[in-house]
Each structure stands twice: as C-alpha cells, then as structure tokens.
Amino acid sequence: ALAGLFDYVENNAEAMLLPRWTFYWRFLTDKSDATHYFGGIWAEILGTIYLTLGSMLFAVPMGVISAVYLVEYAKEGMLVRILRTFINTLAGVPSIVFGLFGAAFFIHALRLSPGKSVLVGSLTLGLLILPMVIRASEEAIRSVPQTFKEAALSVGAGRWRTVVTV
C-alpha cells in the first residue's frame, strides 16, 4: 500500500522540501496541548493579559501614591534619602531574583497560593515595575510648574486638592 508513496516522494521531493507560506489561524485560539507539539497559544495569551493587568492594578496605585508622598508631602531628610536609595536598589535587581523572591515570599511565607499562580506572578511583576512607576510619577509631578501649585494654594485649595487637580 505504501509503494505508491515512494514513487510520489521520489518524483516530488524537491518541491516538498521548499518552504511554503501558510498561516493556521486556529493556532491563536486553540487550547495548548501539554506536550506543546499541537494546539494553540490561547491560554498563554490569556495568562499574559491577566498577569499584565494584575501587576498594573498593584503597581500603578502604589507607585503613584508613593511618588506623591515623596514629592509633595515628605520633607527632604534622612528617611526620604533612605527610601530613594531603596527604590534605586530595587530598580537594579535582576528579574530572576524578583521571580525567586516572589516564589519564596508570596507562596511559602505568605501562603497566598499553594503553588504557582497568576496572583503570585502579578504581585512579583508588580514589585518589578514598581520602581519604574515611582520614578516616572515623580518626574511627572515635578514637571508641573511651581507657580501652578502656588496659584492653587493661594485661591484656597488644600494640599491634597492641589495635588489631585493641578
């Protein structure tokens, strides 16, 4: 039954070995197989979206609040210098160290999950991007001209109202 196949391969081997452009659309939406030889990448895409959104939900509010405190409320002194040193140190830590820390701290110490999960990954990634969010927010707050802040304070706006509106 295979005799015809041998003749076909012998006659068409060169054409069979040439690459052909094809795209399998269901590759994006199918579930992946455990062996990763078959199936699609839908679970991986969804996991990436969940991980990104979760880390942003953690890092953006924490980073902006920290930046507002450091720029507007904290007096320049030893505590603020120490906090900025910690933030700069966190910005220089390699991502693999953050991953190991997240696994050790969030899973084993805090027991947030019995094993790896999107929550643990989101919190770890949130800690990874937190120094960048703090720095960017500090620079954005510092870029507002001082005269705008003084004008808001002079018309009776409180410090918090000035920070939020100006």
Overview in brief:
With 166 residues, the protein is mostly helical. It contains 8 helices and no strands. It has helices at residues 3-17, 26-29, 42-73, 78-91, 95-109, 118-142, 146-154, 159-165.
List the helices and strands and how they pair.
Blueprint: H1 3-17, H2 26-29, H3 42-73, H4 78-91, H5 95-109, H6 118-142, H7 146-154, H8 159-165
Description:
This protein is mostly helical and 166 residues long. The chain contains 8 helices and no strands. The termini are far apart.
Whole-number mean pLDDT: 89
Counting H and I runs of at least 4 residues, what is the number of helices? 8
* Fraction in helix: over 70%
Strand content: under 5%
What class would the helix/strand composition place it in?
mainly alpha
Shape designation: elongated
Q: Could you name the ranges where pLDDT drops below 50 across 5 or more consecutive residues?
A: none
Please give the alpha-carbon distance between the first and last residues: 81 Å
Kindly state the number of beta strands: 0
